[in-house]
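Hi, here's the filled form for the chain we discussed.

Project: internal
Contact: R.S.
Residues: 283
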Amino acid sequence: MKRIFTSAHICLVAAMAILMASCEKEKLSGVIANEKVANVNLSLENRIEVGSGDNFTLNNDEITIPITVNLSDASGTAFNVQVTPNIDTIATLVGSGALAPGTIALAEQTFNFPPVIDFAYGVKSTTFDLKVSRSFIERNHDKLLALAVKISGASKGNKVEAGKNATVVVIDAAAAIAAEDVHYISFKAAGAPYMVPNGVNYTIGTQDVSIPLELTLAGLAGSDFTVDVAPNDALVTTLINNGTLKNTIVLNSNSYALTNTKIKFLSNENTAKLELTARISEF
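And the returned structure, exactly as it came back:
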């Protein structure tokens, strides 16, 4: 009888434990079901000015601009929101006077940012990075550059606040990158006419004269890149007409060639070489 009683007692205790766990689970489920998570509103500041301040970082490849999305209260749950660019609106803003005359939009493929931003539970804001090509900024060093960034489609019942769904990022290129830090590319012999022959600055073949030329990159070299090189007969004609070049004629385009019209600067290199060949019969 003692063994039977003990087994029955164990079964009863187990049944009571299961019953208690079931009740606690029902209570917890009830609490979760009755708890209402407060939704939040998302907003962006209307405009971000980038230039002489400290709200950006710069390296050899790109400028990084942090953009903060603010919440009306601490988030009650984790959620996300979509981020998209709006390039076309820049021209409209310039036309309306909201942006300074001459401001240009960032070109496609010259910037990037994450398409979706995640918010953790309990946060009041989150920040993502807009990255813009340094090369594009340097090519437009005398201009203001702009991009509109828009947020939409907040998940889990959260909403984007009306009128605060977009920010316009305006980059003052000349203020963001000092003139002496711009990666200007030039011919090493640029300026005065490059006279041939001049020492050993050419080699003679059976039919052609080969003239080595060198490009230089100002500033600190970074990643590899290419630059296009092309003849400019119109410039030569202008220099002949204004007297800069004397006893000079323009070579026929069929009598000379560049060995390569797309010149590559290797990583961390400040010089690159190309070669011009001209037919001896033209001399």
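Let me know if anything looks off before we file it.
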